[in-house]
From TrEMBL:
Residues given in the record as ATP binding sites: K69
Cross-referenced InterPro entries: Prot_kinase_dom (IPR000719), Protein_kinase_ATP_BS (IPR017441), Ser/Thr_kinase_AS (IPR008271)
Similarity comment: Belongs to the protein kinase superfamily.
SMART domains: S_TKc
Keywords: ATP-binding, Kinase, Nucleotide-binding, Phosphoprotein, Serine/threonine-protein kinase, Transferase
Enzyme Commission numbers on file: 2.7.11.1
Keyword Cell membrane (UniProt): no
Name of the featured protein: non-specific serine/threonine protein kinase
MF-aspect GO terms: ATP binding; protein serine/threonine kinase activity
PROSITE patterns for the chain: PROTEIN_KINASE_ATP, PROTEIN_KINASE_DOM, PROTEIN_KINASE_ST
A GO CC term attached to the entry: plasma membrane
Residues annotated as domain Protein kinase: 41-336
Species for this entry: Arabidopsis suecica
Reactions that this protein is recorded to catalyse: L-seryl-[protein] + ATP = O-phospho-L-seryl-[protein] + ADP + H(+); L-threonyl-[protein] + ATP = O-phospho-L-threonyl-[protein] + ADP + H(+)
Length: 342
């Protein structure tokens, strides 16, 4: 990783007046902050924001829409930017957001130019006030594409990459509602996957939360060990959101989706009980057209969620196993060119 960092780092003092340079991978390296201002028409349109960054509408090559992610200027967050940049420079997958260019002053300031995803993030799309209701076939397709993106980072790279923050606001959607995983700022690469467990502040006696509320793997909170299983836990919560249309954590009600779903999940894991159709329908997003739904597909999605969020780590499947199950058991996926119907 350190070698990789050194290879892509450039000496800004030498290149500050240079024109943007295109790297072999087609990623453009912008050499001055002026370039960044021009790309975003002086940061005129904010399209998103997160804990570490603001995302602005940008124009790439003068016309194509793009998204520019500017990290908050600080030495600590510069490391987050570098991590995300280094990972995105390596990754190429249809379901992972594409890096188009970047600016790096090698000290505090960094910006990533990303492909623009016009349908925003999955969390917004599932909200009850969203104008458009995501159809069932789109929901199962998003689940499959997301797990294929996770399989790619878990299995296709050495050292392995653990995303570390799988959640619906990190799942972006293109115009066809195809999924693109984004935000690699919390990723763990290879041996760096051992991180500090959450700490108890002596004054407040409150546990400092690590990760995003509603998505954090309790095993990770206890041990501080980030692993592929932690990504599968986040994936399981996203599947519950896709099925129920409910948010992973409701600040209003102080309620977590995994707790609401727990009785149903336990019944599913108890293989002696055949889960009743009524119970499944009660959990289902009421905005979905219930009559046209194949209830067995819903059961498959719920079974996948149940094993992914299981407290028994040995039960949690790999991303490849989940992708296989979805393709075999969900005929609605045939419109993607896969699934039983093809
Ligand atoms: N390429 C993009 N196209 C369209 N919208 C985007 C794009 N990238 C990010 N966004 C929007 O900005 C939001 C925040 O992006 P992102 O998660 O990358 O920021 P962050 O600072 O890393 O957030 P977090 O607090 O989760 O760490 C996304 O949820 C999405 O709504």
């Amino acid at each position: 990783m350190a070698c990789f960092l050194n290879c892509v780092r450039f000496d800004v003092s030498k290149t500050i007046t240079d024109k943007p340079t295109s790297q072999g991978s087609g990623v453009t390296c912008y050499n001055s902050w002026d370039d960044v201002e021009t790309l975003t028409s002086n940061f005129s349109r904010l399209i998103g924001s997160g804990g570490y960054s603001s995302i602005y509408m940008a124009r790439f090559s003068g016309s194509d829409k793009a998204a520019l992610k500017v990290h908050v200027s600080s030495h600590r967050l510069y490391q987050v930017f570098r991590l995300e940049l280094d990972i995105l420079l390596r990754l190429q997958h249809p379901n992972i957001v594409k890096l188009l260019g970047y600016f790096d002053d090698s000290e505090e300031n960094g910006a990533l130019l990303l492909e623009y995803l016009p349908q925003g993030n999955l969390q917004e799309k599932l909200q009850s006030n969203s104008k458009q209701v995501l159809q069932w076939r789109n929901r199962v397709a998003i689940a499959l594409q997301l797990v294929q993106a996770i399989e790619h980072i878990h299995e296709k790279y050495s050292p392995q990459i653990v995303h570390g923050d799988i959640k619906s606001s990190n799942v972006l959607l293109d115009k066809n509602f195809d999924c693109k995983l984004c935000d690699f700022g919390s990723a763990k690469v290879g041996f760096s996957s051992m991180v500090q467990p959450p700490t108890m502040s002596p004054r407040s006696r409150q546990v400092k939360m690590v990760g995003s509320p509603g998505y954090t793997d309790p095993h990770y909170l206890r041990t501080g060990i980030a692993s592929k299983k932690m990504d599968m836990y986040g994936f399981g919560v996203v599947v519950l959101e896709l099925v129920s249309g409910k948010e992973a954590f409701s600040a209003e009600r102080g309620e977590m989706l995994v707790h609401i779903a727990a009785p149903l999940m336990n019944e599913i894991l108890d293989s002696s009980v055949d889960i009743s159709e009524d119970k499944v329908r009660q959990f289902l997003d009421p905005r979905l057209l219930r009559d046209s739904l194949d209830i067995d597909e819903v059961k498959t999605m719920l079974s996948v969620a149940a094993v992914c969020i299981s407290s028994k780590l040995s039960l949690r499947p790999s991303a490849a196993q989940v992708a296989d199950t979805l393709i075999k058991e969900i005929p609605s996926l045939s419109f993607l060119g896969c699934g039983k119907g093809v």
